[in-house]
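It would be a great kindness if you could assist me with a short task in structural biology. The matter concerns a single protein, recorded as an amino acid sequence and a row of backbone structure tokens. Kindly check, if you would, that the fold set down in the tokens agrees with what the sequence suggests. Thank you for your consideration; the sequence and its tokens are set out here:
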Amino acid sequence: MSGQREADAFAIALQPIHDADYRHVADRLLYRHHGEGLDDPVAATARALATAIYELDEGKRLGPRELIIDLPAEWLERADLLPSPARQVIIGLPRALFLTPALVGTLEQLRERGYRLLMPASSLQGDGRAFAPLVDLIRLRRPDELDGDQLRAHRQRGARLLAEEIRDPERLEHFRALDCHYFDGRYLAEPAFYAARPRGRHGNRAAQLRLVNELYREDADLHRLFELLIQMPHLHVAILRRANSSQFGQGARQSDLKRAMQVIGLNELRRLVMTLSLASDLPSSKLKVRMALIRAFMCRNLATPFSNIDPENAFATGLFSMMGPLLDEAQDALLAELPLPAAVARALTDREGHLGALLTLCEEHEHQVADGGATASTDRLQQCYLDALDQTDALMSRL
């Protein structure tokens, strides 16, 4: 368990950035990790992005504000993982970068896609002046870090200024006199770090490889992707959260995985899956996934003869009844956040309605099986259970 505690000792903060009128217009992503579980800068950045973009509760998310991300040099080789929309993201470049034709090409491609680039003023001195045409935002740590000629040259090409290390009102006024566009709000309050969600992840690497392979096929099959994703609880929930975030929210709350996949689109799905895969470091139990799928299929099988019960809602009821344990999260808090249909939510929380009755039947039958009391009879309940076993095995065998 000590390894898990080290891996879980990871937190992020969204440090507010304000404009000259003190409006909260952007956030800078900060993260820290205690322990030895994440020494890979690519994985650490992926984990921070996964938490900020895909896992924060709605009230703590960015909304329409811009996000400033300081990226390690290694991440520039994985630009396909950057979050969208590009117009909302400002990429902070490392201080020590050696300008090569390949790097120039990479940075130009990022700007063509709509991302803006941020660099410290100190890195734009000497040989670093070659970066100036590629930089949209300059980080100032002192009001006198750039002389008047340098400031005029940067302004003429459209660069903006971000003031940092504002220690007192006098220094703030010096920065304001330079017509800075952004001001780091750390002088107003220290950043509040949010603990990242527990790293209970689906650890089937073979399944992840098949998923990635399917995602990047030119003729990616939505149904095949659905079959793979339905067995990965952390991705299932992350897709629902993303589809219902302020960026993709379209009024109607999405609770169906297939519909949510369509809402965010293939490119965003690729970013989400790859970022969360890089961010993962502890596997969750494949046995739990199998148990949840058996329950979900059994609920759907039981609902089939009844025209007044949606079989897909029945499936969701069975699956989400175990989603908390699958993700190592509090079940009540998770259900309160997810955009489940009212009938499904009532069934999960209070066992109400037809769906609640189906779920209760499934749970009671599971107890009978565990106690050895269930027989291979031909009654409908047992047959639905046996069919659910076959359906689950058929689905998971394709991994």
In short: Residues 1-7 have pLDDT under 50 and may be disordered. The CA atoms of residues 237 and 338 lie 8 Å apart. The first strand starts at residue 10 and ends at 18.
